[in-house]
Structure formats: structure tokens, C-alpha cells
Design goal:
The protein has helices at residues 5-16, 41-44, 61-71, 77-87, 92-147, 153-180, 183-200. By secondary structure, it is mainly alpha-helical. Helix 1 packs antiparallel against helix 5 (92-147) and helix 3 packs antiparallel against helix 4 (77-87). It is rod-shaped.
Length: 203
């Protein structure tokens, strides 16, 4: 094992974690994308006001089933759009009620999922910062041991193995973070796209 590479690896951690310092308001946010803590329903929806809808959509089994289907990211957008078009039918009053409940349910469900993803990202980013600090400390300790003429080689080997393992964990988490950072944006795009479909179904 080439112990000399550890200082280089530790130095790279600062660059990898730099997004955490991009916005002082959100020091734990690990993504290059700006953090928008909460979405606005008004920014996604130009249809009839949903102010009086609340959670009433949950009381209607058909609406709940529709929301579950279209909110699921495994459901292709085209299939979700088709389900919406088939659901929002009837008299103008019925269509408006269904459209408002469908959007309210969609927004509440996906906004909640988005919030959970973002909270998870910040939890993982805090672990990354702590792990980077531990690796840095362990590398400093390894240097000290290597500089001793009577150093315990078993201790050096064990510490080097621990550093290598910690570094692998760090890199795996970093790759996961980079992938998951795309999810909030994907959710936003899904809400917006399906909101347009719901609105169009009223015409």
C-alpha cells in the first residue's frame, strides 16, 4: 500500500466538499444546484385556486389512487398524462373539482418526497464532513507513527487499512450524493409537467 498518497487524498476532500460552503445559509447542502427549501404551489399551478382543497383529496379513493399512480417516478410521464386525462372528466364543475384535488394531492405528495430527499442529502453530507475530518486526523497520526524509529508496524498497517476503508466509504457516499442531487430537480420537473396536463384537461 502506498501510504504517501493519503495526504493527496485528504487535500482533495476540501475540493470535493466545497459545495457545502457555496451558500452560507445552507452549510450542509452538498449539491451544486442551489437549495430551494420549499416549492410554491402557485409557481406550478395556473388553474383554479386550491386554497380550499386542503387534504380533502385524501378522502376520495379514486383521487388517492390517481395521485399514487402519477406521483410515482416509476410511472412514465406519458402514462401519467393519460391517467389524468381519463380522470378529469364530467361536467365543468366536476372537472374543476377533480383537477384541483388531483393537483393538490400531487403537489403534497411529491413536495413531501422532495423534502425527504433533501433532508437525507444533508444528513449524508454531515457524515461526509465528519468522515473527512477523521481521515485527516488518521493520516496525521499515520505520519507520526512512520516517523518514529521504533514504530509498531502492526499499528501502522492497521491504521493505514482503516484510512483506506474510510476513503472508500467517503468516495462511495460522494458518488451517491452526486446522483441523488438530481432527484429534487427531477421531482420539480414532474410536478410542473403534470400540473400542465391537469390544467389542460379542464379545457
Amino acid at each position: 500500500m502506498n501510504y504517501a498518497v493519503f495526504p493527496i487524498v485528504v487535500c482533495s476532500f476540501a475540493a470535493l466538499l466545497s459545495p457545502l460552503r457555496a451558500d452560507p445559509r445552507y452549510p450542509d447542502w452538498p449539491c451544486t444546484q442551489p437549495k430551494v427549501p420549499e416549492l410554491s404551489a402557485a409557481a406550478m399551478w395556473d388553474g383554479p385556486s386550491i386554497e380550499n382543497v386542503g387534504n380533502t383529496w385524501q378522502a376520495d379513493l379514486k383521487v388517492r389512487d390517481l395521485v399514487e399512480l402519477i406521483a410515482a417516478r416509476r410511472t412514465p410521464l406519458e402514462a401519467a398524462r393519460k391517467a389524468i386525462t381519463e380522470f378529469v372528466v364530467g361536467t365543468p364543475a366536476e372537472k374543476e373539482r377533480k383537477a384541483k384535488q388531483a393537483f393538490a394531492g400531487l403537489f403534497e405528495t411529491l413536495n413531501g418526497q422532495r423534502r425527504e430527499v433533501m433532508d437525507g442529502l444533508e444528513r449524508v453530507s454531515r457524515k461526509e464532513v465528519n468522515l473527512a475530518a477523521k481521515i485527516k486526523s488518521d493520516v496525521a497520526r499515520l505520519r507520526e507513527l512512520q516517523d518514529k524509529p521504533d514504530a509498531d508496524q502492526t499499528e501502522i498497517k492497521d491504521l493505514a487499512s482503516e484510512i483506506e476503508w474510510s476513503t472508500r466509504i467517503f468516495e462511495d457516499r460522494r458518488k451517491t450524493i452526486r446522483y441523488v442531487c438530481e432527484v429534487p430537480t427531477t421531482i420539480e420537473q414532474r410536478i410542473f409537467a403534470l400540473a400542465r396536463t391537469i390544467q389542460q384537461s379542464l379545457n
